[in-house]
Structure prediction request, 453 residues.
Amino acid sequence: MTRPSSFFVTVLWLPSRWLLTAILLAAPTGYTTLLAQDEPRGALELASTSHAATLVEAITLDRARFRLADGTAIELPTRDIVGWGRLPPWPQGPMVLVAGGGVIAGRLERYDAEVAVVRSQAWGLIEIPASCLVGFRASMAHGPVCDELLEQTSDAQKAPDGPQPERLFRLELKNGDRLLAKAIAIANQVLELNPGQSPPAATSIAGSDAMIFSDGERVGIPLERVQSIDFLAAPRIIQQRPLTLWMALADGSRLNVQSISSVGASDAASVQAESVILVGEAFVTRLKATGNRNQIVAIAVDGGCARWLSTLAPASFVQTPAIGSAWPLAVGCTLDRGWLVARGRTAFAGLGIHAPARLAYRLENPVDRFESLVAIDDLAGQGGSVRVRVLAGRGGDPLREVFVSGVIRGGEQPLALTIPLDQATALELLIETADGGEILDRTLWLDPRLIGR
Prediction:
C-alpha cells in the first residue's frame, strides 16, 4: 500500500468573538465518494464518513485538490467547495480557545505575557502568541463563551480606535470559587496569580461574587483545580480575506487554515501546521506544529458559493415572548452560551433562537438553496416544541413560504433541511411555538448556509 504524503498546513485565526464560519455536508452512513455536481452553479460537493476514503491533497484560498478512494483526482476552485468530511464531537476536555473561534483539544502547558504552549492531543506541542488566547476549559462543563467577554468585546467594537479594555483573567475553580486577576502565569501545571512587588491585595468586584487580585505576592494554584479561564480583553484582529477555510481534527479541534499542501512523500505520518494570526492592523505571527494527516476529518469553506448565516448581518431579528424579557439571537453558541451540539451532532457554526421569533436577511447575491440542521437544544431535555417556517423572495416581490416543518420536539434527532430558493435575494426564518407554550422552545440551527454563486 502506498503511504500518504505529508502535508503543510497554514492556519489562520480570523476575527470574531463568536465561534464562526463553517461548512459540513451531512453524509449518509457509509457514503464516502463524490456526491454530485450542483446543477445551477456547478459547485462540487464532497462527503465522507471516513476521511481516508476521500483524501485532501491540497487546499489554498484559490484551488483545492481531492483524491477519491479509487484514485480519481479532483481539482476545483476553492470557492466552489460546499463541504468535505464529517465533524467529530467537541473535545471533552481539556481544551484551549483561540481568537476567531478556534478550539485546540489539549492541555495548557505554559503561559506568560508573550507565549502560550498547548500540548495538543492530535499534533503535539503548539506555540501560540499569548495575546491570541481567549480561554481555557478543563472540560465541556463550561461553554465556549462567557458573558463578560462578550460585553467587553462589544464595547471594543463600538469604538475600534479607542483604548483597548484592560486585560483581565476570569478564573473558576472546580470547587466553585471565582477569581479575577490582572496577570497570570502557568508553568509545571501550576497557575500563578499576579507576580509583583506590592503586598497582596484581593478585593471584591461590585455586582460580582468574584475576587480580584491586584499587584501582590505570587499565589499558586494547581492547574488541575482550575475549571475555566477567560481572557476578558479579546485581541483586535483584522480580517483581510474574503474566503475563510476551516479544518477539523479527529480530536475535536477546529482550526482556521490558510492552506493545506503537500511537503513531500517520504514521511507519511508527518504533517506540518503553520498558523498565521493577525493581531492589530499589521502584526503577523506564525506558529508551527507537527502531526498526522489522517487526523484531518473535515474541511469548511465560507465566502465562496456557500455563505453561513452566522457570518452575515441580519436585516432584522424580533423575539416576542408572551411574558418576560426578549431572548437575544445567539451566534456561534447556544442561548446559554454553550457548545453547539444536538443529539451528538456538532457544527462549525450555528444560531440559537428562542421561539417565537423572526430572523430576516437581505442578500447581496441570489442564492439557490438553504441548508441547515434544526433541533431543540439538548439542555431542554425532552421539553420544548416548535414549528419552523422558511420564507424567500426575489427583488421587491412579496416573500413566499418555501418550507414548513412538522412539530420539532426536544429529544428528537436534528431535522435536516435542504430547501430550493430559486435565486432568492431575501430569506426569513420563523420559529413558532407548538404545544406547551414557550417553555424550553430553544432551537439550534447547526451550520445554516446559503448555496449560490
About this structure: The chain has one helix and 37 strands. The first helix runs from residue 147 to 158. Residues 309-452 form a domain with the Jelly Rolls fold (CATH 2.60.120.1060). Residues 115 and 129 are 5 Å apart (CA to CA).
